[in-house]
Each structure stands twice: as structure tokens, then as C-alpha cells.
Specification:
It is built from 4 helices and no strands. With 89 residues, it is mostly helical.
């Protein structure tokens, strides 16, 4: 089957970049400003030099920033931290 044609999957790169960005935000716990700066730097480099890998990095950084900012500004999380008692020895 030398003439087999694989189907196009146009959004697979975007989906993988989103998953990588969210997992990176979840496990690396960087600051939102750092993630935003890295995502904007990768996006700028992607537009200046071109290329899909830099755009995937920028997309992953964008999703990481969105995940971190939503997690940090969650009202339920802020309420739980304010109500929680101090740690005991």
C-alpha cells in the first residue's frame, strides 16, 4: 500500500500544545508573569522567523498562562485559604 494517503488532522498540533501548556502550568508552578513573557517572546519569534514549532511553544505558553491565572483568581480557592486554620505542630 505505497499509495496510502493519511487524513489531514489540522488541529492536532494546537490540541497537543494546549495539553502541554496546561500540564506545564500544573506541574511547574511558574509565576504568571514569567509564563506570559515567555509566551509573548515565542509568539514574537514565530512571527519574525516563522515556523510552526515556535508557534506551538507560544500556544503552550498561552494556555499555561490562562490556566495559571484562572487557578490563582478562583474565588473558591481564595475563600478556602482565608478560612483555613494555621498549621499546627
Amino acid at each position: 500500500m505505497a499509495g496510502r494517503i493519511l487524513p489531514r488532522l489540522p488541529l492536532v498540533g494546537l490540541a497537543l500544545a494546549a495539553v502541554v501548556g496546561i500540564l506545564a502550568a500544573e506541574y511547574l508552578s511558574s509565576g504568571t508573569r514569567l509564563v506570559l513573557v515567555l509566551a509573548l517572546a515565542a509568539l514574537t519569534a514565530a512571527f519574525l522567523r516563522g515556523g510552526a514549532p515556535l508557534l506551538w511553544v507560544a500556544t503552550a505558553g498561552g494556555f499555561a498562562f490562562a490556566h495559571l491565572s484562572q487557578w490563582q483568581q478562583d474565588p473558591a480557592r481564595q475563600w478556602a485559604e482565608s478560612v483555613a486554620s494555621a498549621p499546627r505542630a
